[in-house]
């Protein structure tokens, strides 16, 4: 709790007000879920927030079963999608997380029937055929679902994982010791949200899961990490260690990347930290720390581009990443950065406490709009505030951090 106090300071009452406001907004919505049921983009993320909030305010526990019932009913009526961000792959993972915390005797995924697995297998195969490996919207996200099913003892998930691993092995572009993947748009993207960093984290979890395959998973990881490290640019010139997508895609003009969960240095540093721990690589570990410490000092440069409070590309996401790193390392630089971006999040709330409209900024329309989701909206902001208050963020695994 001392760690929490040092970061929150005297903001406890303010944070409690925000959490209550977010919860009330969610439960005051129509009982029928909206068109988006997703873990990261819709109703499931809101339910996850209520679950986490009910741990410190148990009056909200009563709303979780009824919201889950409405979600199941909507799925049964055909409101169904497949992706990790917006569909069944993520929804099932979210429900399993909540149910496993509620009941120690619960058997993982006991609510999933053969029809769900068969349908998600078909959608995974479609993504593979299209060459769409995207974490949020393609094959890798569905792969995380089947990986968790495999860990829970479901043997049938092995076939789906084998097919995905075959796809990653066959589409890997190998150049000496380097490996890269091009997405369905034939672009090389190193980001956490849509690119190679998420592929490597998936392969790392597969590598440690006990999954057996004829493919050299370790080689794919090492080659992928090596390629990403080759994309490094001069942080003193570009204000970041890595470009937005990759050097290869920015041949006309190299552009530094923003400070965010979705794109840029933080996602790469998180990936390097995970890879260094699993494969015991001290060089990767030092590089991860170097990037994190540099990023912790980024507060005012014009390349940061933090305009809202949401997790995806806003202040709450940055605060969460630094706070998690602080818990792992005890490095006070990360605590200071987490506190700075936490305070920025609170400032966004103060500007419009009735609606919290600064939670989500749309870069195309250049306007703010209401959003209750986990990834870009108030449910995610609330989850970050809870994580910092309670010194724990088990749910953040859904963001690969």
TrEMBL record:
It comes from the Bacteria. SMART domains: LANC_like. Pfam families: LANC_like. This is Lanthionine synthetase C family protein. CDD domains: LanC (cd04793). It comes from Chryseobacterium gallinarum.
């Amino acid at each position: 709790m001392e760690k929490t106090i040092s970061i929150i300071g005297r903001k406890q009452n303010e944070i409690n007000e925000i959490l209550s406001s977010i919860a009330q907004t969610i439960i005051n919505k129509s009982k029928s879920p909206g068109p988006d049921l997703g873990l990261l983009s819709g109703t499931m993320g809101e339910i996850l927030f209520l679950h986490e909030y009910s741990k410190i305010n148990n009056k909200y526990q009563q709303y979780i079963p009824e919201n889950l019932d409405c979600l199941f009913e909507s799925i049964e009526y055909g409101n169904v999608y497949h992706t990790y961000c917006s569909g069944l792959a993520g929804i099932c993972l979210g429900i399993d997380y909540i149910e496993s915390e509620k009941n120690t005797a619960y058997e993982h995924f006991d609510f999933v029937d053969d029809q769900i697995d068969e349908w998600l297998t078909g959608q995974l195969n479609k993504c593979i055929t299209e060459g769409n490996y995207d974490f949020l919207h393609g094959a890798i996200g569905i792969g995380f679902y089947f990986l968790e099913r495999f860990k829970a003892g479901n043997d049938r998930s092995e076939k789906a994982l084998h097919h995905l691993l075959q796809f990653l092995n066959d589409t890997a572009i190998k150049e000496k010791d380097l490996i890269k993947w091009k997405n369905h748009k034939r672009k090389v993207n190193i980001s956490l949200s849509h690119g190679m960093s998420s592929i490597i984290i998936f392969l790392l979890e597969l590598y440690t899961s006990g999954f057996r395959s004829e493919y050299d998973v370790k080689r794919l990881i090492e080659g992928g990490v090596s390629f990403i490290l080759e994309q490094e640019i001069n942080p003193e010139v570009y204000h970041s260690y890595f470009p937005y997508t990759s050097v290869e895609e920015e041949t006309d003009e190299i552009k530094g990347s923003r400070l965010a969960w979705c794109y840029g240095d933080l996602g790469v540093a998180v990936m390097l930290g995970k890879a260094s721990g699993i494969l015991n690589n001290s060089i990767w570990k030092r590089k991860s720390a170097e990037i994190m410490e540099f990023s912790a000092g980024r507060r005012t440069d014009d390349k940061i581009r933090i305009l809202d409070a949401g997790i995806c590309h806003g202040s709450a996401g940055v605060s969460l990443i630094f706070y998690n790193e602080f818990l792992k390392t005890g490095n006070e630089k990360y605590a200071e950065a987490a506190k700075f971006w936490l305070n920025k999040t609170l400032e966004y709330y103060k500007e419009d406490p009735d609606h919290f409209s600064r939670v989500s900024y749309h870069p195309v329309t250049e306007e703010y709009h209401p959003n209750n989701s986990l990834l870009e909206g108030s449910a995610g902001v609330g989850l970050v505030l809870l994580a910092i208050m309670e010194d724990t963020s088990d749910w953040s695994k859904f963001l690969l951090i």
